[in-house]
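SEQUENCE-TO-STRUCTURE ENTRY
===========================

Subject: a protein chain together with a token-level encoding of how that chain folds.

Sequence line: the amino acid chain in single-letter code, read from start to end.

Question of interest: how does this chain fold, as expressed in backbone structure tokens?
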Amino acid sequence: MSLFSFVKDIGHRLFTKDSDAAEKIAKEINDNNPGIDNLKVEFRDSTVFLSGDAKSAEAVQKAVLLAGNAGGVSQVNVDGLKLPGGVSANTVETEGGVQYYIIQSGDNLSKIAKHFYGDPNKYPIIFEANREVIKDANKIFPGQKIRIPAA
């Protein structure tokens, strides 16, 4: 079982009732089109279950962040996602040298870039890798989980 953990009470409020969560999360993922066909979303006990056909490991990673950064979500399960060739998506967490980072109070993308790459001017790498969950490079929030691609 492949679960990605998130801070449940932090994130964008996509839904107000648990009964609406799956529909709203599916819309958020589909609207940002990370590359998952036949997407199905279930929501139970603050866990999102994703299934469908992912075009790449990056598509899975982005869908996980879109779902997990929603307020009220504590975990995302990707066991139902399949990559080309029928490969299970539960192997993609760090594929391509990707790391994950939970934004702390006082962080900005330059500070994060300096920490991971040694150069604050490389913040656009982080911004571009997280376009789906960071709409404005100046608007990140503590508790938000983002992808840090390999340098």
